[in-house]
Amino acid sequence: MSLPLHVESLSVRAPNGRLLLTCPTFSAAPGDVIGLRGPSGAGKSTFLYALAGLQSTMSGKIDWGGTDLAHLGDGARARFRRETIGMIFQDFLLFEELSALGNATLATAFNGADKRRSIRKTAEGFLERLRVPKDRRTVDSFSGGERQRTAIARALAHDPAIILADEPTASLDRDTANALIADLIDLTRSEQKTLIAVSHDLHLLEQMDRVIDIADGRLLSEAALA
Ligand SMILES: Nc1ncnc2c1ncn2[C@@H]1O[C@H](COP(=O)(O)OP(=O)(O)OP(=O)(O)O)[C@@H](O)[C@H]1O
């Protein structure tokens, strides 16, 4: 599945009414790898959460291949997210009492037998490639980087068309980070997915098709990497 993105007249507000982000227009085509960067507090995570349909107070249009997330009810948004979005966010939200494989295959709970098999196979592939410990330990004893890699395998296991990532390389050593960047880009290009990643990692940003700066709650024009 390939889903072009078109955002129009987007405003995101905090529950107290404060305007957090505006975006007059933004588009991404399937196969695009896009970086977002900007100073702390600029609105990068706010934008990613909006693209995932995780902002409750927003107006405008967030159209992924004909589905406008800004105008869907909570249940339909959750279903869309479950089926089509892989989120690699800073708060990994792992289940402490499960193993790496248990966490990475959580999506099997929502799917039938065929899809369950492919989720398990994909999860095992990513856990292996990302060198996550293979023992049956529960993740509460994992290091920060091991937890992050487990969360990445989980985000990708259900083969999402859209990958949204917030500092995906933040707790990884350089080699693991580079391998992850290469995997994400290959996967996105070869399967016509869309990757949008917030990052300060120059190695990651250099390999994106486009890098967008966000400042003071606004998307600025495409940046040239300094
Ligand atoms: N629910 C909320 N209520 C009030 N303010 C909020 C809320 N969520 C975010 N903000 C504010 O919106 C601004 C943008 O936050 P956001 O998390 O998007 O920044 P960011 O660019 O991702 O920053 P960082 O790089 O530090 O993660 C910040 O000033 C933040 O305090």
From TrEMBL:
Molecular function (GO) terms for this protein are: ATP binding
Supply the alphabetized keyword list.
ATP-binding, Nucleotide-binding, Translocase
Which Pfam families does the entry link to?
ABC_tran
Q: Which domain of life is it from?
A: Bacteria
**What Gene3D superfamilies does UniProt report for this protein, alphabetically?**
P-loop containing nucleotide triphosphate hydrolases
- Where is the ABC transporter domain positioned along the sequence? 5-226
Q: Which family does it belong to?
A: Belongs to the ABC transporter superfamily.
What PANTHER family would the database entry show? IMPORT ATP-BINDING PROTEIN, LIPOPROTEIN-RELEASING SYSTEM ATP-BINDING PROTEIN LOLD
Quote the protein name from its UniProt record: ABC transporter ATP-binding protein
Look up and give the organism this protein is from.
Roseibium sediminicola
